[in-house]
Write a structure and sequence with these properties.
heterodimer; A: 243 residues; alpha+beta; Alpha-Beta Plaits; 3-stranded antiparallel β-sheet; 7 helices; 23% helix; elongated; B: 232 residues; 3 domains; 10 helices; 3 strands; 10% strand; rod-shaped; disordered C terminus
């Protein structure tokens, strides 16, 4: 085949564009999923959490989270009777392998699973300079991995410390509420693997979801309500010392 | 050496400095500038530069209709040529901006908000690792029956057996590993002050005396209902 240099130069970018579109492929569709019919949140029942770390392990395996970084983690609180304002918190390796026995036996001890609160008025999405993070129409805070620059504004903005920049990809990472699972009718990896049912995925737009009955009949709180972020991670039995 | 440039610097005291920048000036700057100073007599100001006095500039201006020139209100349009040139620069710039924007901004940006709409689909298309207990129960109905009678009925299969979506897709491709109860059981049941008091906990070292958990408890239904060694 004879080709002049001019023809080659014209062909090369065209071939690059074509190859790019082949590599991108077509995303697997979830045909039965309608974003406007859902408004996702989660219920965490602290009175049921046993600190086994199943959620942390499941999240890491499901989402290929880099070792040492956590999209969800479990904290152990120790609140002394004499100073309830200053709890001692530990979370060895995010609670992934459970917790060692407590050093002191006085006071109050409990576990608090933490993750993205999927705020309605999320500070992290507001500070993104390139529109790489957003609240999806079904109420999940997501990161566009192709658009993220890794500038870390969102990491600083999150009042709950739920974001990190992946050391390999150099993009912001966070809990996606297992968006690839919930859009296929499954529950999240952490909820699926919680042995005591301390975590429950909640669809606030679904009138038949048990979350509505639970919220009516329990004293449910959110973290840092004074930040006015309107979180959708609801905690039952949340102690006042939890930050 | 012939001077490359002659820069005439007019000063307010009628002293004009001529700076000849000589060709090939690589050395110290000052050595290539020969400065001559001379005083000249005051002359009419040459506003438009060498050889272009005000009258010749007027002569070259675009010709406008008489009523524009005559009307003091149309003063702003006497230099309309400049305005058209400026407008065309803005127009070209605007078209260039819109063309670049159309090329660089992804098609789905702004579909739902200030972000790339197709990012939602891309996130939803990620692969699954945990198949979910409903899928397991489709084949392993016998285990489900045992499990549903015991206190572990709420514990999903993959919480102990690990992520097995690949096994669910193609059962022959991956065989679940045999589990070690010495590791698995204590993850949940090792005594810890922070665990809810109602949750069954043991200090494993004291509880079994080193014997593996499944000597007495069968993981799928752990209550001791018969003599040790009962099946399942």
């Amino acid at each position: 085949m004879n080709m002049t240099r001019r023809q080659l130069l014209i062909l090369l970018p065209a071939a690059a564009v074509a190859w790019k579109s082949i590599l991108a492929g077509t995303p697997e569709a979830s045909p039965n999923y309608n974003m406007t019919e859902h408004w996702w949140g989660m219920l965490v029942d602290i009175t049921k959490c046993i600190g086994c770390g199943s959620c942390v392990r499941a999240c890491q395996l499901e989402n290929q989270v880099t070792d040492g970084y956590f999209r969800t983690w479990v904290e152990r609180y120790h609140v002394s009777d004499y100073d309830i304002e200053s709890p001692k918190v530990d979370s060895p390796d995010g609670g992934k392998n459970g917790f060692p026995p407590a050093a002191v036996s006085d006071g109050k001890n409990f576990f608090v699973p933490k993750m993205c609160n999927h705020c309605v008025d999320s500070p992290c999405t507001q500070v993104c300079p390139v529109g790489a993070t957003f609240v999806s129409p079904d109420g999940v805070v997501l990161v566009d991995q192709k658009y993220c620059l890794g500038c870390r504004y969102c990491v600083q903005a999150c009042p709950y410390g739920c974001r990190f920049v992946d050391p390999k990809k150099e993009t912001a990472q966070k809990c996606t509420l297992c968006y690839h699972r919930i859009t296929k009718g499954l529950t999240t990896a952490c909820c699926e693997n919680c042995p005591t049912g301390a975590r429950q995925l909640a669809d606030l737009k679904n009138p038949n979801d048990p979350i509505h009955e639970f919220l009516k009949t329990h004293s449910v709180q959110v973290l840092k309500p004074y930040m006015a972020t309107r979180p959708k991670l609801f905690y039952n039995g949340l102690d006042g010392s939890v930050r | 050496m012939t001077p490359l440039f002659t820069v005439r610097v007019a000063r307010s005291d009628n002293v004009t400095t001529l700076c000849d920048l000589e060709h090939g000036g690589l050395g110290p700057f000052s050595s290539h500038i020969s400065t001559k100073q001379f005083t000249k007599t005051p002359q009419p100001r040459d506003t438009y530069g060498e050889g272009r006095n005000a009258s010749s500039w007027q002569h070259n201006r675009p010709r406008l209709p008489e009523w524009v020139v005559a009307n003091p209100a149309m003063k702003a349009f006497r230099d309309a040529g400049h305005l058209f040139r400026l407008a065309s620069v803005f127009l070209v710039g605007g078209i260039l901006f819109l063309a670049l924007r159309g090329f660089l901004v992804p098609r789905s940006f702004g579909q739902y908000g200030h972000y790339r709409g197709s990012a939602i689909k891309e996130t939803a298309a990620l692969p699954i690792s945990y198949a979910g207990h409903q899928v397991c129960e489709g084949c392993h109905a016998d285990i489900l029956e045992v499990k549903s009678k015991g206190v572990h009925k709420g514990v999903s299969c993959e919480a102990c057996h690990g992520p097995l979506a690949k096994h669910a897709d193609d059962p022959a491709s991956i065989q679940p590993a045999k589990l070690d109860t010495a590791v698995l059981c204590v993850r949940c049941h090792e005594a810890n002050l922070a665990k809810p008091k109602s949750f069954p906990q043991v200090v494993s070292a004291e509880h079994s005396g080193g014997a593996p958990c499944e000597t007495c408890h069968q993981p799928h239904s752990p209550a001791i209902v018969a003599v040790a060694g009962a099946s399942q």
